[in-house]
Amino acid sequence: MWKNEYDRWREFKEMDEKLSSQLKEIEDDEQSLEDAFYKNLEFGTGGMRGKLGPGTNRMNIYTIRRAAEGLATYVNDQGLSNRGVAIAYDSRYMSKEFAVETARVLGYHGIPSYVFTSLRPTPELSFAVRHLKTAAGVVVTASHNPPEYNGFKAYNEDGGQLPPLQAESMIGFVNKVENELNVDAADQKQLEEDGLLHWIDEKVDAEYLEQLKSVTIQPDIKKDISLVFTPLHGTARDLVQKGLEQSGFSSVHIVEEQAQPDPEFSTVASPNPEEHQAFAMAIEQGKAVGADLLLATDPDADRMGAAVPDKNGEYQVLTGNQTGALMLDYILEHSPDVPDNGLLIKTIVTSEFGRVIADAHNIGTLDTLTGFKFIGEKIKEYEQSGEYEFMFGYEESYGYLVKPFARDKDAVQAAILIAEVGAYYKNQGKTLLDALEELYQKHGYFLEDLQSVKLEGKSGADKIKTIMEDFRDAGITEAGGKKVVAVEDYSTMTRHYVEGGATEEIELPTSNVLKFILEDDCWFCLRPSGTEPKIKFYYGAKSGSRKDSEKILEALKETVNDRLHALI
User: Fold this and answer.
1) CA distances (Å), 168 to each of 66, 248, 377, 443, 499, in order?
2) Do residues 402 and 412 lie in contact, with contact meaning Cβ atoms separated by under 8 Å?
3) Catalytic residue among 95, 126, 143, 351
4) Quick check: 292 and 251 in contact, CB under 8 A?
5) Which residue, 245, 201, 200, is CA-closest to 223?
6) Among positive and negative, which fits the CA dihedral 90, 93, 96, 101?
7) How far is CA 200 from CA 116, 118, 124, 440, in A?
8) Coil, strand, or helix at residue 358?
9) Which run of H or E residues covers position 305?
10) Contact between residue 286 and residue 294 where contact means Cβ atoms under 8 Å apart
């Protein structure tokens, strides 16, 4: 019962002074106390993420120590403790403190840590794990969540987020920590003296920037393109700026008001390039300087968004699917040698546009579950087997990987490549919107949308469960005027065909996801978020014209929303 957990914290005599004060502030607010203590903050397959504050269901030094204790046990269990753990962090409240707490717990177990002296992008941490050959990695970040959130993401020795089997093992070790208040942590100064806490920075930066040169496909093309870039108060400024400079882009304008790290993300409602409002200041500056392309990265720099002026001079923000399609087509069209066993890797909720482009260039496409860890896992598998050669990986949520020297989505790489794509088309007198229209005319008009429904707390979790059960059991045979061809239930790893009733196995890990495959290459999908109190609804439509695809998309959303509103 949550009250027992609250009492345990309230009676803890060595409680951190700040947390003790925060706990006292909510002592008369039973709803807040219940939300803070009704469960342990879940450590899932991607780590953990939550609101800052006191409580077992909050991000604080004690829940961080619990996660770090689990990681220490995991590393020791792998027999890799001597190789240590690389640690990075973003610009959020408590990020550096949580990074140091992680190192202190690891150091107590004799495991060395390699910690950046200041904030760094998530993909650089992925690279650092591989470069330093550590046993694991940690990034303290809540990505693009609101300011009151932070998180802890764990990486394996390949630099990828933990895939299911490894995650299951680590989750087990974390869950075995019975009392987060009693986790031991060594003294920071003593760890530094004993060689168990190493501070790292510029050398890893230099090696990453050297690898970044390989992202450029046509180094000799004219780079006469004007760019505006905003890191949205996060970690990407230095690496993106240096990467663009070494790639030959000289006209780069930084949105200075958003260039400095700011845990409040004070100039945006949300520091997420998926949301168009995040581009407001970049658009203003873009109009002032006549920029050809706007770039934005989220706080931990694993997501990148782009915006392009239309014929009326108004900037249009590209979707993740559109940007991915443009980069994929450019890679396959202009790489000097596209291997016969080349492979595109995308997620099940990413547009089918990419598959059609890959087919046109005679390379294969592999679908994975949502989450870049699954893409990273497949890159490693095929590197070892030689069965396929990785060409590009992406997901609709603005995550891309061009070259696998990192094993997580990399906004720095994406910024360099999309700038090159923009320059290439400008040399032909075209914008990225013109190039996109040509791809649509060639392959069909693929349009997608995403709706997120936020349902917080225990009651919200119950509603999300009810929604999934309803759609699972409803026997839906039509949506948006399109017949349902098949229903894919990733919780049972089965694909059920409506006509004829046949069922076949899906060769992917289990996940609480439902995807409805409709006629004419249309679809919709339901997925509860693993990191936020949300359920997400993804939609895909395709036809021979933009107007028809827009109509199909709206009809799909209307069908789903009518059912959803009856449930919540």
Assistant:
1) 16, 44, 15, 41, 37
2) no
3) 143
4) no
5) 245
6) negative
7) 5, 9, 12, 46
8) helix
9) strand 304-309
10) yes
What Rg, from alpha-carbon coordinates, does the chain have?
A: 24
Q: Which residue has the tokens 């939609």?
A: 539
* Sequence letter at residue 184: D
**Pairwise pLDDT comparison (283 vs 529), residue with the higher score:** 283
Give φ, ψ of 115 to 5 degrees.
-115, 135
Neighbouring residues of 20: CB distance < 8 A, sequence distance ≥ 6: 54
Q: Is the Cβ–Cβ distance between 518 and 479 less than 8 Å? A: yes
* Alpha carbons within 13 A on the beta-carbon side of 493: 7
Q: What are the DSSP calls for 84-142, one per residue?
A: -EEEEE-SSTTHHHHHHHHHHHHHHTT--EEEESS---HHHHHHHHHHHT-SEEEEE--
Examine the pLDDT at 45 and tell me if it is beyond 80.
Answer: no
The answer to whether 143 is a known catalytic residue is yes
**Measured CA distances, 223 to 336, 416, 470, 485 (Å):** 19, 11, 53, 47
412-431: pLDDT as tens digits: 999 999 999 999 999 999 99
pLDDT at 563: 93
- Taking the C-alpha atoms of residue 460 and residue 534, their distance in angstroms, rounded to an integer, is 8
- Condensed to tens digits (0 to 9), the pLDDT of residues 491-532 reads 999 999 999 999 999 989 889 999 999 999 999 999 998 767
Amino acid at 30: E
Which residue type occupies 61?
I
In sequence order, what are the residues at sequence separation of 6 or more whose Cβ sits closer than 8 angstroms to the Cβ of residue 514? 468, 471, 472, 487, 488, 489, 490, 525, 526, 527
Q: Does residue 277 surpass a pLDDT of 90?
A: yes
The closest of 119, 113, 117 to 86, measured between CA atoms, is 113
Do 104 and 187 touch, CB atoms closer than 8 A?
A: yes
192: confidence class by pLDDT, cuts 50, 70, 90: very high
What size, in residues, is the chain? 568
Residue 267 CA: distances (Å) to CA of 270, 281, 303: 9, 8, 18
Asked if 305 and 327 count as a contact pair (C-beta separation under 8 A), the reply is: no
Contact (Cβ atoms closer than 8 angstroms) between residue 499 and residue 528:
no
What is the H or E stretch that residue 327 is in? helix 320-334
Residue from 415, 56, 52, 452 nearest 263 by CA: 52
Q: What tokens does 420 get?
A: 């090159």
Domains of the chain, with CATH numbers?
58-200 (3.40.120.10), 210-441 (3.40.120.10), 445-566 (3.30.310.50)
